[in-house]
Amino acid sequence: MATLKKKLQGLVAATLTPMTENGEINFSVIGQYVDYLVKEQGVKNVFVNGTTGEGLSLSISERRQVAEEWVTQGRNKLDQVVIHVGALSLKESQELARHAAEIGADGIAVIAPFFFKPWNKDVLVNFLREVAAAAPSLPFYYYHIPALTGVKIRAEEVLDGIQDKIPSFQGLKFSDTDLLDFGQCVDQNHQQQFALLFGVDELLSGLVMGATGAVGSTYNYLGKKTNQILEAFERKDFSSALNYQFCIQRFINFVVKLGFGVAQTKAIMTLVSGIPMGPPRLPLQKATREFTDHAAAKLKSLDFLSTADLKGRNLGACI
Ligand SMILES: CC(=O)N[C@@H]([C@@H](O)[C@H](O)[C@H](O)CO)[C@@H](O)CC(=O)C(=O)O
């Protein structure tokens, strides 16, 4: 049985994996990264080695070391450290799951295998069950991200009866925009026993539909702003929640048009936090100087960046 833990809720930062210019992992800044999330962004949960963390581009040994560093540095500072342990090889995934349990992580998550793909719900759940069984004491989350895995089995189908197969099942990270599917997951979750975490940073729609929390890349540097959405939603001030959402979207929409992914997230995080995230690993390509300059200008115009070097306050600023 999974150890009873407080339900994962609120914002969860999908962490980046800091790298040196030579492409090695820069473990030395993870402690600083933890402090930044907690103190500057008000984010106390992390999702490590996922999409944003380039988990699938790291070796197994690197994934173990990154997980270990987050757990160590996060001790007594972070509420929960969830480790993504998905891999194409079931054995590797099980090894990572066991390791997460040994180091004292708070949960594990797994994506659908995406080379040889499960062709139906039962096959997918069998795969997930085998991984979960390697760390039965850890809360288990299914990481649904069909656009990247190509596995289009609906999340509501996966959830149906899943706890009978996976006793440690604790929730879903829903990285998709199909609100019918997400709504069905919420509707099924009658006893509210599962954490249903929205994985797309246009968060308000997920909250309205019943998300209990959210995992995302932008919470690394817009956590404080996004927490304002959660707070307004909590006090039923929907108009303010929408204003905060639109304000954040002005930035997301801007960078999406420039071409936005993990490399660009690394550049933005470096800019906003001052912590060097370095380049991504191939096949991803480092963000261009042009992208970083445009993103910096937009962040300043929205007052998302330190105003110390601002000459005058922009009237369109989101504060
Ligand atoms: C495909 C992707 O990278 N999605 C991001 C989002 O946070 C995304 O950057 C955001 O919604 C941008 O609109 C997260 O869901 C990724 C994530 O949670 C992870 O790193 O595991």
From TrEMBL:
<dbReference type="Pfam" id="PF00701">
    <property type="entry name" value="DHDPS"/>
</dbReference>
<dbReference type="GO" id="GO:0005737">
    <property type="term" value="C:cytoplasm"/>
</dbReference>
<keyword id="KW-0704">Schiff base</keyword>
<dbReference type="InterPro" id="IPR002220">
    <property type="entry name" value="DapA-like"/>
</dbReference>
<feature type="binding site">
    <location>
        <position position="215"/>
    </location>
    <ligand>
        <name>pyruvate</name>
    </ligand>
</feature>
<protein>
    <recommendedName>
        <fullName>N-acetylneuraminate lyase</fullName>
        <ecNumber>4.1.3.3</ecNumber>
    </recommendedName>
</protein>
<comment type="subunit">
    <text>Homotetramer.</text>
</comment>
<feature type="binding site">
    <location>
        <position position="52"/>
    </location>
    <ligand>
        <name>pyruvate</name>
    </ligand>
</feature>
<keyword id="KW-0963">Cytoplasm</keyword>
<feature type="active site" description="Proton donor/acceptor">
    <location>
        <position position="143"/>
    </location>
</feature>
<comment type="similarity">
    <text>Belongs to the DapA family. NanA subfamily.</text>
</comment>
<dbReference type="GO" id="GO:0008747">
    <property type="term" value="F:N-acetylneuraminate lyase activity"/>
</dbReference>
<keyword id="KW-0456">Lyase</keyword>
<comment type="pathway">
    <text>Amino-sugar metabolism; N-acetylneuraminate degradation.</text>
</comment>
<dbReference type="InterPro" id="IPR013785">
    <property type="entry name" value="Aldolase_TIM"/>
</dbReference>
<feature type="active site" description="Schiff-base intermediate with substrate">
    <location>
        <position position="173"/>
    </location>
</feature>
<dbReference type="GO" id="GO:0005975">
    <property type="term" value="P:carbohydrate metabolic process"/>
</dbReference>
<dbReference type="InterPro" id="IPR005264">
    <property type="entry name" value="NanA"/>
</dbReference>
<keyword id="KW-0119">Carbohydrate metabolism</keyword>
